[in-house]
Design goal:
There is one protein chain. By secondary structure, the chain is of the alpha/beta class. The chain folds into two domains: about 170 residues, Rossmann fold; about 70 residues, Trehalose-6-phosphate phosphatase related protein, domain 2 (Alpha-Beta Plaits, 2-Layer Sandwich). The chain is about 30% helix and about 20% strand. It contains nine helices and twelve strands. β8 and β9 form a beta hairpin.
Length: about 270
């Protein structure tokens, strides 16, 4: 993956200037955001993550604009996302984009239908002696959260994750996230592909915007390419995103700039393909 060496914190003011530019103000936007670490602060457990009321109001204001569509793309299930976000009329893409539901689209990756997640039992057996591990069972994958694991156990946990823990007919790949090991189907599909699938349901030209904070979001930055506006949250040395938002607390400023940008102006020549 080619990483952008100039995606630094000092480009954040340039992003706000770009959002205020006349040519961007008139664009039709498909705005996609990750949930954990982006819209919501990282919580000790997945169940404890919450969407702040102010952020929900801004998402609602953004979605009500006729020139804007909003998508939430996450490793969580669609059902979980709907419950956490609580807004209708949005596009929801769960399990890293393997399932999508929203206006004009209801889709699941064909390789994900009827998946047998026998890996969960194997993981629980192998990790039961490591205190603080939380195994999250999802219909299309399994996540091992270790935010509650003492650092002295991290080495042993990493060794277990690299081991051949299970014998399953399905093929998985292991992704490393923020205090998380994520077992995903080994198929050529990521959050960026989900965003492109949503884009194809829209008529005309739409500019894609994607904001994320984790390794799986870097996949999306590469997939959707330079025509989109991409933002990585967090102080990172390199990223495939065009801009870096230093802290998640600035997501409110970002959404407000999008929700209250001026209307009018020429539509974009090309949207994401």
């Amino acid at each position: 993956m080619r990483r952008n060496a100039v995606a630094r914190d000092d480009r954040w003011p340039l992003l706000l200037e770009r959002l205020a530019a006349p040519e961007f103000a008139g664009a039709r936007l498909l705005v996609a955001l990750d949930f954990d670490g982006t819209l919501s602060a990282i919580a000790p457990t997945p169940d404890e993550a919450v969407l702040e009321p102010s952020t929900r109001r801004l998402l609602g204001a953004l979605a009500r604009r006729p020139d804007t569509k909003v998508a939430i793309i996450s490793g969580r299930s669609i059902e979980d996302l709907r419950e956490k976000v609580g807004l209708s009329g949005l596009y929801y893409a769960g399990n890293h984009g393997l399932e999508i539901d929203g206006p004009g689209i209801r889709w699941a990756h064909p390789c994900a239908v009827g998946l047998d997640l026998t890996i969960r039992e194997a993981l629980e057996e192998q990790l039961r002696d490591i205190p603080g591990v939380l195994i999250e069972h999802k219909r299309l994958g399994v996540a091992v959260h270790y935010r509650g694991v003492h650092p002295k156990h991290h080495g042993r946990l990493r060794l277990r994750m690299r081991a051949d823990l299970f014998d399953s007919p399905a093929r998985y790949r292991l992704m490393r996230g923020k205090k998380t090991f994520d077992f995903r189907l080994d198929v050529p599909w990521d959050k960026g592909h989900a965003l492109r699938a949503i884009r194809r349901t829209l008529k005309g030209a739409w500019t894609a915007v994607f904001v994320g904070d984790d390794v799986t979001d870097e996949e999306a930055f590469e997939t959707i390419g330079p025509r989109a506006l991409t933002v990585r949250i967090g102080r990172v040395r390199r990223s495939g995103a065009q801009y870096v938002m230093p802290d998640r607390e600035q997501i409110g400023l970002f959404l407000e700039a999008l929700a209250h940008r001026s209307a009018g102006g020429p539509p974009p020549e090309e949207g994401v393909r």
